[in-house]
Fold this protein.
Amino acid sequence: MSKIPLQFRHNGRDVAIFVDGGTNLLVALRELIGDMTPKFGCGQGGCGTCGVLIDGELHLSCLTLAESVAGRSVETLDGMKQGPNLHPLQRAFADNFAAQCGYCTPGMLMAAKALLDRNPSPSRDEVIEAISGNICRCTGYEPIINAILAAAGGRVSA
Amino acid sequence: MTRHRGRGIASINYPIGMNLGGDPSQALVHSNPSGKFTVALSSIDLGQGMKSVTRQICAETLGVPVEDVYVDTADSDTGPHCMGSFASRGTHRVGNAVMAAAREARGVMMEAAAEELEVNAADLETDGRGNIHVKGAPHRSISTKDVAIAAQFKQGKTISGRGIFLVPLSEVNPETGEMSPATCYAHACLVAEVDVDDETGEVAMVRMDSAYELGRALNPRLVEQQLVGGAWMGVSHALYETTEPHYPEAVHGPRDFVEYLMPGPGDICPHDIAVLERPAPDGPFGAKGPGEMCANPVLPAIANAIYNAVGVRIDDLPITPEKVLRAIKAQGGARPQARR
Ligand code: FES
Ligand code: FES
């Protein structure tokens, strides 16, 4: 099968790769670009840990055809921190012990960022709604909800 | 349709570790020429915080800053043997092994420092900030880094230590059946409040209040994190998780983790936790273990709360809406019990 050339923006940088037809975005990001921050959990849209933003909107990269992001902007956790400084959401996750094994964390952070980018002061219910496609096996969710609310409220350590 | 509120309580007495042929864990501690220490373990940290807590235990025992200790749990082929991370045994068993190893390494470090300062090792103390000085004479001091360099390049000594902690196998007395399977017990009590819908059989968590006695909390935030997450797992076991039901046919059962139910962020409830610290005599700095036991009281407390709400006793997990509904039907309707 012939390869398909594909260009898109990856965390603000133009990238060009060749993909096989049918390759999903998660595989393209991890194996072809080397960005390991989106995780493989289920590969079928059930866990949310592969979440990325496409033109600012949350998508499950395991269910996204790589070709469909041609010319678009893809944001992953790898692009979240600003230089050496953690993003306020990342700080808030650390402050609130919102990660244990950390496997859900990339998806949780991307889902939270998508929420705060469009709604900077969400209610608790809106936070719950925003992460309800993401499974966490360790934390019991409460610390994650608290972290997102803390980041929204500006209550994060320097 | 009526929603019935019910409250249930459960208390547990939880043995730390297990008793299958003895319960050992080992640790090795060594200093690098930079004066930093590495703890080698094959005990795995799955996110509970064992690396943090063994790092604290090692630093405290050596008398060095916590930043100077690195815990390597990377490889069970190269790390010293551990039975595993289960049965709430990590902090207690591995922590004790790390403490023993760090004590031995500290002995060598103090000897090496004594040689450099030309004093008796017994007259030295650590300041916890990376220096070793003569008791009562803090100006006669040497940094742990300089000690490490001297040990490595001048004295030809390895600043290192070995540690094992073993709870030996307790045999069963054939006459009486008596045995002593654990040396250390943690305790907890939890009150669960639920709403049971007598038309759908659904159980919704309303709130939980709990008290945990788990020895000294070496890292209180990690302990709290364990208790919050563990209680959620308890709710999950009590009400959701199963590879069944597969009625009427096995093919209707869940096939993978996408179809395997767990409570989501919208199904959780407020949980108020009190941590009681009663140091364990044989625990590292008095610690027991908050691991597995933090899920345990949740299940019976929820089963009791359901009984309190609608008068049905479900003794088969998970307590699915179907089981609740069938039981309510069988007894001819919900029979709320007295609230205490
Ligand atoms: S890996 Fe994409 S949703 Fe689970
Ligand atoms: S921290 Fe382990 S899955 Fe969320």
Q: What stands out?
A: DSSP finds six helices and eleven strands in chain B. Chain B has two domains: 3-16+182-330, 23-167. The CA atoms of residues 312 and 327 of chain B lie 6 Å apart. The domain at 23-167 of chain B is CATH 3.30.365.10 (Aldehyde Oxidoreductase; domain 4).
